[in-house]
Amino acid sequence: MFLSQIDLLTSNGLLETLYAYIPNVIAAVIVLVVGWVAGHVVGKIIGRTMDRIGANAAFRRTSVGRAILRAGFTASEFSKAVTKWIIYIAAILVALENLQVPWQTRR
Known about the structure:
Elements: H1 2-12, H2 14-53, H3 55-60, H4 63-70, H5 75-98
Helix pairs in contact: 2-5
C-alpha cells in the first residue's frame, strides 16, 4: 500500500514539482529576512536623523504635522514607522513574486 502511494506521487510529478519549488521558498524567506533587517536599520537611521534636524518643530508648523503630534507620534517616530513599512511591503511583494503568487492584475 505505501509503495503504491509513493509510485502515485512520483508518476504524477508532484514530488518533482515540490522539489523544484523549494528554491523559490528559500529565496522568499531570504528576501523577507533581508527586508526586515533593512527596514529596521533604515527606519532607525531616518528616525535619528529626524531627531537631530529638529523635525518636531517643523511638524508643529503644519496642520498635518500637528495632527500627527496629537496622535502621539513625534516626527522621528512617524518617519521611522513610514520608512520601515514601505521597505517591509516592498520585501513582501518581492517575496510573493519569488513564490510566483500573482499579487497584481495584468491587463
